[in-house]
Specification:
The protein has 7 helices and 21 strands. By secondary structure, it is α+β, with helices and mostly antiparallel strands. 21% of the residues are buried. Keywords: Metal-binding, Zinc, Zinc-finger.
Length: 338
């Protein structure tokens, strides 16, 4: 018995050594990959702006490289926080470090293959946004829709890849996904489209340089709303055709799509969960209360039980009618008087 214990102890110790060595090996590989990915992101950001010199003002200015015509391009007179490209091609990263552009060190063939690696496999022109798991190819949105519109391909699962472009300018990378508009925007277009009127109160989800959404929805001032959102099946490893719309984790998509930030704030703290039988329920992290009834729907019922219904009809900046309740502050695009 004692020999068996000694043998088991030796085996456990050997297993622990093997596991420790393997963990260290995997950790080093992951670290190098993360380091490489971060450098690629910094390089991509630094390529966005090019440094030029103004003879008139005797100072440097920075032009957005996405525009071919410099007269129409966005111009900054302060150093871009994302970094920039000097006139001699040297990249100044957001960290302040200066490096040679890796593209300039490649041959023409290597540069061409590098550019094609992010392009659609069909048209080889547009940036790929979806990777089909069954086809093993990457597609832009248009080519994916046309090639997977019928037959067995309709059921192919896909994963979202690449950065998300701004829905407004369709050139710059999006940094925010508006919950109410259900569209992505770059920083500049967000300021233009959401700088005034009712849109100024829209909530959003931050988007990183990989096109991944932060599941925590933010209020207009950048603070957390306490609500959680996700992009749907494709964000977690696959999707079906038509799964491009932003799905809501705490409230249903119609509620968030039609309510403004005042209504979202009124159900702050509720989180959608699933019980042991697979049924959804909601828990309030602030009060500790749990319920199997959707808080957003219950809120609408409570608002409709009052003696007075002080609803007033208005029109937004696009001319679409909406209704506002002066007592509760609720706003909706669905007629509550019907």
């Amino acid at each position: 018995l004692s020999q068996a214990r000694i043998k088991r102890k030796i085996l456990y110790k050997a297993a622990a050594c093997i596991q420790a060595g393997q963990r260290g090996k995997v950790a080093r590989i992951l670290f190098e990959q993360k380091k490489k990915d971060r450098l690629e992101h910094l390089v991509a950001d630094a390529r966005l702006y090019k440094e030029l010199y103004s003879e008139e003002s005797q100072s440097n200015y920075y032009v957005l490289c996405a525009k071919e015509d410099e007269n129409d391009a966005e111009t900054l007179w302060t150093t871009p926080p994302t970094g920039y490209t000097k006139g001699d091609g040297v990249l100044v990263l957001a960290t302040g470090k200066e490096i040679e552009d890796p593209l300039l060190q490649m041959t023409d063939e290597e540069r061409r293959l590098k550019e094609l690696s992010s392009k659609c496999s069909d048209c080889e022109i547009e940036e790929a946004t979806k990777f089909c798991e069954q086809c093993g190819d990457q597609f832009c949105s248009a080519c994916h829709a046309s090639s997977h519109a019928s037959g067995n391909r309709m059921n192919h699962r896909w994963t979202r890849i690449g950065a998300i472009k701004c829905a407004e300018c369709e050139e710059k990378q999006a940094s925010r996904w508006c919950i109410v508009c259900d569209d992505p925007f770059c920083a500049l277009c967000w300021e233009i489209m959401h700088g005034r009127s009712r849109r100024a109160g829209h909530c959003y989800c931050p988007i990183d340089s990989d096109g991944k959404l932060d599941p925590t929805a933010r209020a207009a001032d950048g603070g957390s709303t306490g609500l959680m959102y996700s992009m749907g099946p494709e964000e977690g490893g696959g999707g079906e055709p038509g799964d491009d719309q932003l799905q809501v984790g705490t409230l249903d998509s119609q509620s968030v799509g039609s309510l403004d930030s005042s209504v979202v704030a009124s159900v702050e703290g509720w989180t959608s969960l699933t019980d042991q039988d697979g049924y959804p329920y909601w828990k309030n992290e602030i009060t500790g209360e749990s319920t199997y009834e959707d808080p957003s729907q219950q809120l609408a019922i409570n608002d409709g039980q009052g003696e007075e219904q002080p609803w007033a009809e208005y029109a937004d900046e696009t001319g679409v009618p909406y209704w506002y309740n002066s007592q509760s502050g609720e706003t909706t695009y669905e007629n509550p008087l019907q």
